[in-house]
Amino acid sequence: MKFNPFIAFFVFVLLPQQKFVQVVADLDSDKQALLEFANGVPHVKKLNWNLATPVCTSWVGITCNTNRTDVIAVRLPGVGLYGTIPSNTIGKLKALKVLSLRSNNINGSLPSDIPSIPSLQCLFLQHNNLSSKFPVTFSPMLRIVDFSYNSISGTIPNVDLPSVKVLNFSYNNLSGSIPSSFKRFPSSFIGNPLLCGSEPLKPCSESVVSPSPSPLTDFPSPKTGSQNQHATSKNKLGVGSIIAIVVGGLAFVFLLLAVIFVSCLKRKHSGSNGMLKSKISQNDKPNDFGSGVQEAEKNKLFFFEGCSYNFDLEDLLKASAEVLGKGSYGTTYKAALEEGTQVVVKRLKEVAVGKKEFEQQMEVVNRVGRHPNVVPLRAYYYSKDEKLLVYNYMPAGSLFALLHGNRTSDRTPLDWDTRMKIALGTARGIANIHTEGGGKFTHGNIKSSNVLLSDELEACVSDAGLTPLMNAPLTTSRIVGYRAPEVIETRKITQKSDVYSFGVLLLEMLTAKAPLQPSGQDDVVDLPRWVRSVVREEWTAEVFDVELLRFQTFQEEMVQMLQIALTCVAKTPDMRPTMDEAIRMIEDVRQSESKNRTSSEAESNIQTP
Ligand SMILES: *[C@@H]1O[C@H](CO)[C@@H](O)[C@H](O)[C@H]1NC(C)=O
Ligand SMILES: *[C@@H]1O[C@H](CO)[C@@H](O)[C@H](O)[C@H]1NC(C)=O
Ligand SMILES: *[C@@H]1O[C@H](CO)[C@@H](O)[C@H](O)[C@H]1NC(C)=O
Ligand SMILES: *[C@@H]1O[C@H](CO)[C@@H](O)[C@H](O)[C@H]1NC(C)=O
Ligand SMILES: *[C@@H]1O[C@H](CO)[C@@H](O)[C@H](O)[C@H]1NC(C)=O
């Protein structure tokens, strides 16, 4: 067959281009819709949106999908938007998942094409002045809807919103009774004086349950009533009224001065009281920070899918921050954003890779983090001078703090069941990192300060996937106590060397001895060697944490766990189990024990008549 140049032209030139044109067209229409929005809604802060710059990488507040074919999030909290949003602007972003326009001054009606965007999952509009009716059409994907602190009025239609997890219409002007479909949102309608129904609102009296067709004729209208009063008082302005007005005026001026004074104090205070921005700049050479801010305007926080948070980089930098610790990879802060959100910000130092590689690694870290025993990565920021990672805040702190924290006071010791649960959770977290990362992925920095705990004391492994980003990670003394012997020679971290570190962690949980000294001195306890020497002398009971001595009933389990730990810290990598095998061993300990317990309970039941 003869080579046909026309077909070749079609296949190699036209086809790919057509796809490309399609993609560009999608993004272009999104861009157009956003520009129409920016033109239609006045804003106090200037947005850097313009036709000439790429929407996905340089526009403030915009996030695209990874393929950069669609805008999936618009986050413009507190940028001073005012006026009314026109329809056919934001509503045209057909792949939008997250919209946050909270804490602005938007008024009028919300166009109905916004809550009904089919892909929309999260809608944050709290703290505006919207005066729409309750929206009728909601996207079937919506999970979070926040309209609190607006002026939404009218009655609530009985619509079913099965996918909605969080709904908030508090502090609006809704009226009537709460329909049955909304009874499952108990504290979502507080601060609506005209609304009645389920707790904590007042119960509905007869007259409100069946709204009368024309309330204006049934009830005296408050508006006209007050106008009448106003009119009569204007006609007969007495000396008393004049004095009242003067006194009132003076009081008002005084109040205004007081408010200004207090807000000045407050501003001064928050300045010195550790905004993340100032904390960061303190560590920098002072002149570096200015360029960092400009960078921040150009680049922005990259959010992964999901929308538990609605803030932007500026919010993050303004948040009040507290140093949680200085780790091998940089300093970690707890940042408290307005409206009560807390996140952990990790500021990486000595990142050895370029932007592209960094982004790819972040994708892996995000994938690995979608497991209940790994701390999820929520967002990151990359610029030449600054690399920030944003994680969930884990309220119960680290395993290190729980094991070695203040032991003298009346703290509750970590009981055996909790230790078992943490051991198993940590093992599952590491195993997930080993499998999800494509089989070759390692953690490289397993230690008790990298095991964080949720409110329910569920273990979550943190710092996953950061080792490959770093300069010479193995030279730091901070991981020495957990480091497998072969790593010292080969300088290579493997899954089996992670298993070794996990073994040391188990020994630490059993003995409450820290392989590393808290102050970060080089003074290292070789925990495996110490445990082996004690066990060899048949003093097995001596190795255990004194706080565990109260749990005599679990002695068998403790000895079994000690054996598992010792196989994990075998000197040769081949002798160590894989993480999956370690999980199975730990599960077996629990299962055999619970069988024993139930059988002994059964026995005692038989014995006592
Ligand atoms: C991105 O593109 C790849 C291939 O081009 C495709 O397989 C994938 O589904 C796309 N992802 C999204 C989120 O569009
Ligand atoms: C919205 O606010 C603007 C000024 O901020 C005002 O001109 C306009 O009348 C308001 N619209 C409504 C519907 O309240
Ligand atoms: C909200 O709008 C109403 C008029 O529609 C206005 O009286 C009120 O001052 C506005 N509130 C704020 C906080 O701007
Ligand atoms: C609240 O809604 C009622 C009617 O439902 C209206 O009469 C009243 O003026 C509204 N209040 C405010 C502050 O908008
Ligand atoms: C809604 O917001 C109000 C005010 O911020 C808060 O008190 C209330 O708990 C919230 N309700 C829900 C269900 O989140």
Automatic annotation (TrEMBL):
Binding sites annotated in the UniProt record for ATP: 355
Q: Which sequence ranges are marked TM in the entry?
A: 237-265
Gene Ontology molecular functions: ATP binding; protein kinase activity
Where are stretches of biased composition, namely Polar residues?
223-232
**Biased amino acid composition, Basic and acidic residues:** 588-600
Residue ranges annotated for the Protein kinase domain, each copy included: 318-589
State the residue spans of region: Disordered.
206-232, 588-609
Cell compartment(s), UniProt: Membrane
Give the record's GO CC terms: membrane
Q: Which UniProt keywords apply?
A: ATP-binding, Leucine-rich repeat, Membrane, Nucleotide-binding, Repeat, Signal, Transmembrane, Transmembrane helix
Q: Which PANTHER family match?
A: OS05G0588300 PROTEIN, RECEPTOR-LIKE KINASE
What protein am I looking at? Protein kinase domain-containing protein
Please report the organism this UniProt entry assigns to the protein. Answer: Gossypium raimondii (Peruvian cotton)
Taxonomic lineage of the native organism: Eukaryota, Viridiplantae, Streptophyta, Embryophyta, Tracheophyta
